[in-house]
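Exercise 7.
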Amino acid sequence: MFRLQRRYLVQKIWSAREICIGDQVSAKAFGFLKEAVHNFLGGLDLTSLRRLAKIVSEKDSDACLSVNHLNPAEFCIQKQRYLISRVWRWPDLKDGSELKHIEDSSGEEGEAGMGDCLCVNPFHFSRISKREIPYQGLRGGSKSNKTTQDDSGLSCGSVDTESSQKTKACQVSTCTKREQARKRPWLTLAYWEREQRVGNMYHGYENTINIYESKSKGHRHGLCLKDLNRTCEMNDNTKIAFRNIGEGIQVSLEDGDIWVYNKSQSPVFLNGELLQRLHHTDTPRVDKLPSGYGRKVFDCNANVSTRQSLDKRREEQHCLRVSFVKGFGRGYKRQTIMNCPCWIEMFFTLPAS
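Solution. The predicted structure, written as tokens, is:
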């Protein structure tokens, strides 16, 4: 009975693979991978096999698949993570150095809370992105100055559609004594649909913040876009883009660095002053972040002088914009992010030196 269950689960897990013979891998290499996978699966108990079958068939990013890192050795864990990620997520993955563990924010125990175990769920990893798309100058012309204010007294300044496309900083107008005593958020963001801001500003205090479409897949620390208060209905094009946001993005503060992870099934497009400083250029640019990839948008250790100069500048220099699903700039009919159906604007309070 148990043997039949194991055989069924192993077959189900293997059939859900992304890798195949052809352009992705040669027949000989495919044979080695298949043997390595079956050796790995042979070391799992029935409970772990059931969990892995659910993970790879449903692309489940909630459940952890933990293995003991004392036996086998640590280097074997890295090989297992690479093997699983290549077979079930990225067939063109070169080595494990391209992988980065995503901080758990679902309310369950993450990597740090597993004791002697480490997670090998391929959907708990992001692939580090180093690809960029050069930015095309924005079309000159009309400006659109919109000032909105949320209940907390934060006023989001105008969004300029000129070539620099600078966004004025969010400034605190009045604060109660309780608000002044409270820790200042490291992240403040607003959600936009084209030129219309939707809902109130969101203030992030947790080190890991998720921005996602709905709560259909369980609890997340962050902003659920479906729960925002609306003053007008979406048009059809916006509805299509909104449905494709899915699990959206995760913004994470890690040892002073800021990372953005794309957890949705569609690409996202990044633009803002932080990227310009990351690339040591004054030229505005757009970076494409494919599904499953992660990107560091601020490196606190890369250039101390740059970091100190950032801290002395106005908060508008700490801005990052992210368009969901739809790109803009060079090669796209949308020349500015304000032409995109769904996008967010984030303001960071960068850590002190």
